Amino acid sequence: MMVHKSTNGKINHKEENERMIRLDDAVDEPMDGDDEKDTLTSNHHHSLPEHHIPFPAAEDHKPWHFIISTKKYIHTTLTAVLALSLVLVLGIGQSSSSSRASSSAAAIVADSTAGSGGKIPWAPLPDFSQPISRVAFGSCMKEDMPMPFWDTLLEFHPDVTILGGDQVYTQEQDACSGQGNCTLLKQAYDQLNNHPSFQGAKQRLPMLGMLDDHDYGLNDCYADNPYKDIAKDLYFDFMDIPQDDERRFRDNEGLYTSYEWGSGDQILQLILLDTRYSRSEFLYDDEKWAYTPYGHDQDHGKQFLSPAQWEWFEQVLQRPANVRLILSTQQVLTQGEWGFEHWSLIPRELRKLVRLLKKYCKHVKNPSLPVLLSGDRHIGALYNDPALWDELYEVTASSWTHTIPDGWDPDGVKCSTYPNPAVDCIEQDPTRIGDWVGVNHFGMVDVDWQDRTVHLTLVRAETSHAYYVKQKWQYNTDAGQVLKSLSLDIP
Fold it and tell me: Where is the PhoD-like phosphatase metallophosphatase domain (predicted)?
């Protein structure tokens, strides 16, 4: 597999609609103040010259605003009123053409009143028979915070956007604790559904999702979570999952699912793992206020996925695909120096995951490129562990709204990283490629089917630091900046 250079840099603002990344053709000048580069080197990979990826960017460097602005509300509402008045005055409601006119006017009214609490439909998923080329993903979104990142994301026109866990939080860390019906979690979903920025994005961006701990109702929850089935039902209602969807009828199983788009040699498979519903409890290290891995003789019977999910996972890996995106809400390849939740805490399960990916993605008759997507950590980063498999890469994108601009040192003491990260606040991890990202961001996977290349990027969502260091909210022109990038070849 060929791996190209990873870069840090701002986007060179090119023409709109320049959808596909063409690394071999693009040699763009960096913007001022962008000298730092984060370069991936390896003795079994080679790099291309430094350059910038021509993503769409903020038009004329104007500040980002909420998707549905007051002007749009007023304009749309006036348009709707005029259209309905025309229907009533001319009396054209009696003809077939009048029915179409009335429907259009009603749609305008519905759009104009979306912010008032009326439930609006989700944008439909792309045609599964057609290939897709851009998938966005992210995690950790507080429903009571501003969401200018939706404006940024809309500029990129992703085919699918993955909500990778912790879509809601509530004011309490444990949304369901002590509640039989998880009222606070339901209220959080309602608040998100009524958020003007989310409503605008919901209508325009096809979305899929998976639950992590906070939307499962309890922080750092696992299989013993007594609220997990209530949380599942709330998720079904929030996402408008059809009543006949097979996930609604699973007994004691999570929300795992998969999708495929395209045909021939242009098939993208998306696998969403549920890493909370059936996961075993981690070992807790009281001295380090964190989790510690199970030893070699301790992890027998411990699991990340249920036996049924493992069986299902192996089955979907046998389907034809050229690119496989595998979402785990918890990190996979990190060695977790500070004991946050990750797959290495149950080593046997991590080895099983990698073994299955190797078995089916390197199959001589159906080779494919696997890419791991993750969230949860409130930082962004790229990972690769040659000791496990040098061809397997992971992108962590976390979070949409409250990435940690502060870190913790190894002794568990919170230490400031603003405006420049302190060395002891950066988790030491040999599997991480370069530094982590400490500003609000999201991930992007771009597939160039013609050049047979996949481009992984972390993109700045908007401004940062405001939540934790109490700065005044501001929406600056850094939105859309490429913070990390990595390119891989499709077999």
Answer: 146-454
